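Purpose: get a first structural picture of the assembly so the mutagenesis plan has something to point at.
Setup: two entries, given in the order below. No constraints added.
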Amino acid sequence: MQKNTSIKITSKKLNIQECYDFVQDVSCGGIALFVGTVRNQTQDKAVTLLDFSTYQSMAIKEMQKIADRALTDFHILKIAIHHAEGKLHIGDIPVIIAVSSPHRKAAFAACQFAIDTLKETVPIWKKEYFADGEVWVNAHP
Amino acid sequence: MKITLLFFGILKDIIGDTSKELQVTESITVDGLKTHLLQKYKELNNFSTFSIAVNEEYVTANYILNTNDVVALIPPVSGG
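Result (structure tokens, whole complex):
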């Protein structure tokens, strides 16, 4: 059976074209692409860099579950979920999700499901660095 | 019985280590382990909202641990 999911965690620069090329297919009328980017501030405080750490083996499993569920629950053909680890600077890309589908609505819906679920379940943590210190995001309820 | 603990994110900084081996009583539940850990590591008490994964799968409070389980303490995630 042809592989319909591409899951990756890497310390190298994420590649939008690679995700696009993986999901692209002649049977599909559209591709939804979500690209996360490192923004320059959090609550009016200037961010200098982000450091992503992962529980890599489990994170891969959880990302695979999201991709498999997206294939089951939405009328899509392929999905790629790639996440970066290590230090990222302003404008860098921590996450890419690409989804192809015969029709656009399913692609949008599956893409949103994937990023929303990733942010809730996948064991990845980011530390924000400021000029005067650093903080683990979400660590303090 | 012996289990291995893994620490991630802020918990890694608080404990000052990425993993530790721990002796626990047979048939301890995840909830029981959590109570034990909060007593053993007082510094965890401010961060008691962590989840637990056993052998790379999330488990609930009544899950019963086995010898040689790899138990990860998962603070609130912030990927994406």
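The longest strand of chain B covers residues 2-7.
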